[in-house]
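Practice problem: predict the structure.
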Amino acid sequence: MAVHIRLARAGAKKKPFYRLVVADHRRPRNGRFLENIGTFDPSKDPGQLVVNRERLDYWRNNGAQPSETVARLLKAAARAESAVAPK
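Answer:
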């Protein structure tokens, strides 16, 4: 079973809100998922990404592949986190 970490859309019309979910790649975008591991709110400036790092690491260590969009968001969040961290 190929498992992907991807975004599932929620929220109202013209006001998107996304859940970061772990799902079988054959399931539809908003279909059944294995676990909800975070959220992404693009209406904030910049977009607000909240992730349960422990569960993200667990799934990635067990072979789950992030979608292109999720990989880009995680990379940007890591970059922002390292810029804020004291040296």
